[in-house]
């Protein structure tokens, strides 16, 4: 019942990977407000606090970048220029660096908040035309361990389940995640399932007793870094209870005998001691899984952001495989995606080691297929991975990388060991920042600033954590001269003299992307902007003529995407390779999100209502640790290690494990000081396979300040 002059537009929330549908209503003055979209399969009209306040971030344009700017020398101030001048200057510098130092002297660092079309053109530009694989995104900090885990166990980066499986599961094991705060609408679905079915068992493993634990039947409050020991202990208990699905394991998996031998080497007593949990809780967990008709695992950064993130993923997925709990309703692994379009980025190959449609960068035939499709010479796509996120900034610091183009992300808050990243920016020869806000810290180093259109000011698609693709419409014009990110990249590519970027419309980019998926396991060749506008959302694979609804569940036929078509049960070491605590730095720092803020707060930080929940950073510390250190609740403390320091108020809480402290990841600078930035302390140790940083384990000291 819209009033005259008002219009309604259906879109998708641009924060977490849950992918809630939103109804945007626009008034005659061009202001918008949002509500949850009634009947949407993900959220049924609900939104969390962040989603509910989305319109404030759009209506308030006070921080928006409005015009392109360039500085023509390091000692000169930036000045407003036309788009042509900004892009010609950037193209000239990129061309001369590439000519002098080669294609690997430049890089793009983008974001899991980019639309799929944006990801696609950036990836095509650097891999297919510039001839370097130096594109990475902040998804590297988020999902890359899950990507490798899925590939190694199931054959491809393919989430096998849907959210609807949560409605019928009878055991849900949440590992290293706090979805009650970080994926709230999905967690409400679990809460509703628990209300309907009190026999639904919920197990949470986390060193902190978070809001998610409030409905847990078992909280395994493990020591940081012991997840694999715990998963193996549960595996051992399942073997000893006779809970293995022998037929499934022998017909559809490989590697069980080795796994069994490995997990039997550590007794449950030893495992419980190492993890800091009770044997009884391990046995109870295993007995719940044994009895489950539908067993689901859910996880996010507690497993992914680790020096052994891939092994943590594999050891958890193994619990689904050994019990045959995959490929049927209410069963399987579900990685929770931190960002709205991390999966869309993976579909187009938007990381330094990927190719479009889950093709393998190291496979010459796959490279040739993509080169032919893009009509570029054979051999153009470099046969080696480009720089991952941490490698990119290390290479910038060492001078190997000369230019970096930052799109829609704020690495000066979000990267680990962030003071080194600051040094890297200082050494860069050329920095391009493409963003919506003049509040992002990277602007201090920008030679070129490119103002981008925000959510609701551009159109395109995103894929949520259950493979659900949605179309997001353009509802408003961007302020000033800001342009959609895909248009900026295509205009730049044309200034570089590259063919293949003369798209008239975002739908044309999408059509090219889905064509490249044809015949692959991620086939979405039946999708188009027009169809998505009509149907709202669909899950891939979606092949023309085969299905009206898309695909809710993978592997129903127990045929996996590995070469043998069998799922792989990998045996992994349970050793944690994080840095060690010491007498000097005896506490383990873990970082994470709070309920009402998002990433580095360039959007949610503008909304007063969202500051009411928690308005400043804090250190969560156990009262016993605080007492030993003479720290009072709400007193100022200094957290320190060799990389830096942070000064915030202490929040004493018995909900955190002794020996562990927690800082929120969101805050950056307080005035001119960076003393509330958690990443002053984190380290750039990464998982060797996924290159994902070890954000959840840094050795620190804490003292009253
Ligand atoms: Fe947005 Fe995630 Fe909240 Fe849904 S749960 S409204 S997608 S932030």
From TrEMBL:
What region holds the 4Fe-4S Mo/W bis-MGD-type domain?
6-62
- Full protein name: Molybdopterin-dependent oxidoreductase
Q: What keywords are assigned to this protein?
A: 4Fe-4S, FAD, Flavoprotein, Iron, Iron-sulfur, Metal-binding, Molybdenum, Nitrate assimilation, Oxidoreductase
Family per similarity comment: Belongs to the prokaryotic molybdopterin-containing oxidoreductase family. NasA/NapA/NarB subfamily.
Q: Which cofactors does it use?
A: Mo-bis(molybdopterin guanine dinucleotide); FAD; [4Fe-4S] cluster
């Amino acid at each position: 019942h819209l009033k005259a002059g008002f219009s309604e537009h259906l879109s998708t929330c641009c924060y977490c990977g849950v992918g809630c549908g939103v109804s945007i209503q626009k008034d005659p003055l061009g202001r918008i407000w949002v509500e949850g979209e009634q009947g949407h399969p993900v959220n049924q009209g609900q939104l969390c606090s962040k989603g509910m306040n989305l319109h404030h971030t759009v209506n308030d344009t006070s921080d928006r970048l409005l015009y392109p700017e360039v500085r023509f020398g390091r000692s000169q101030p930036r000045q407003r220029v036309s788009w042509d001048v900004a892009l010609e200057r950037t193209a000239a510098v990129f061309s001369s660096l590439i000519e002098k130092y080669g294609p690997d002297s430049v890089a793009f660092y983008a974001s899991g908040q980019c639309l799929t079309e944006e990801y696609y053109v950036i990836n095509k530009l650097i891999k297919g035309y510039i001839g370097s694989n130096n594109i990475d995104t902040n998804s590297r900090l988020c999902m890359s361990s899950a990507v490798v885990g899925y590939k190694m166990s199931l054959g491809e980066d393919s989430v096998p389940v849907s959210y609807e499986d949560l409605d019928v599961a009878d055991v849900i094991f949440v590992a290293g995640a706090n979805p009650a705060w970080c994926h709230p609408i999905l967690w409400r679905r679990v809460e509703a399932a628990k209300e309907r079915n009190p026999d639904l068992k919920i197990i949470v493993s986390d060193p902190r007793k978070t809001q998610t634990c409030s409905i847990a039947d078992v909280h395994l409050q493990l020591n940081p870094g012991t997840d694999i020991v715990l998963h193996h202990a549960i595996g051992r208990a399942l073997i000893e209870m006779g809970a293995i699905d022998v037929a499934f394991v022998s017909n559809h998996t490989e590697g069980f005998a080795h796994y069994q031998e490995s997990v039997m080497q550590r007794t449950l007593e030893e495992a419980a001691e190492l993890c800091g949990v009770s044997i009884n809780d391990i046995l109870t967990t295993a007995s719940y899984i044994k009895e489950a008709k539908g067993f689901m695992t859910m996880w996010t950064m507690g497993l992914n952001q680790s020096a052994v993130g891939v092994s943590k993923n594999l050891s958890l997925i193994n619990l689904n495989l050994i019990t045959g709990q995959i490929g049927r309703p209410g069963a399987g692994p579900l990685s929770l995606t931190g960002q709205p379009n991390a999966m869309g980025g993976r579909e187009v190959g938007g990381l330094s080691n990927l190719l479009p449609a889950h093709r393998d960068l190291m496979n010459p035939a796959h490279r040739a297929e993509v080169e032919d499709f893009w009509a570029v010479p054979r051999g153009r796509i470099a046969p080696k991975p480009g720089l991952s996120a941490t490698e990119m900034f290390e290479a910038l610091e060492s001078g190997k990388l000369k230019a970096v183009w930052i799109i829609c992300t704020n690495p000066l808050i979000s990267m680990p060991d962030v003071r080194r990243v600051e040094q890297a920016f200082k050494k860069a020869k050329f920095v391009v920042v493409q963003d919506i806000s003049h509040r992002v810290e990277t602007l201090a180093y920008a030679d070129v600033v490119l103002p981008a259109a925000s959510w609701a000011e551009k159109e395109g698609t995103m894929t949520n954590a259950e493979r659900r693709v949605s179309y997001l419409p353009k509802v408003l014009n961007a302020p000033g001269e800001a342009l959609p990110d895909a248009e900026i990249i295509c205009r730049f590519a044309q200034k570089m003299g590259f063919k293949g970027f003369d798209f008239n419309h975002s739908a044309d980019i999408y059509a090219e992307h889905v064509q490249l998926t044809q015949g692959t396991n991620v086939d979405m060749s039946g999708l188009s902007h027009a169809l998505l506008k009509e149907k709202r959302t669909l899950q891939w694979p979606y092949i023309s003529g085969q299905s009206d609804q898309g695909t809710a569940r993978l592997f129903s036929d127990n045929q996996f995407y590995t070469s043998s078509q069998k799922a792989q049960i990998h045996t992994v070491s349970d050793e944690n390779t994080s840095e060690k605590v010491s007498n000097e730095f005896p506490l383990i720092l873990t970082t994470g999100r709070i309920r009402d803020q998002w990433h580095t707060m360039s959007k949610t930080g503008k909304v007063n209502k969202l500051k009411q929940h928690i308005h400043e950073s804090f250190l969560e510390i156990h009262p016993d640790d605080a007492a030993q250190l003479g720290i009072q609740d709400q007193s100022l403390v200094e957290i320190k290690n060799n990389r830096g320091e942070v000064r915030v108020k202490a929040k004493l809480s018995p909900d955190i494990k002794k020996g562990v402290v927690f800082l929120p990841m969101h805050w950056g600078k307080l005035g001119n000081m960076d003393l509330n930035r958690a990443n002053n302390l984190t380290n750039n140790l990464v998982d060797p396979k996924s290159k994902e940083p070890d954000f959840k384990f840094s050795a620190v000291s804490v003292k009253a300040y």
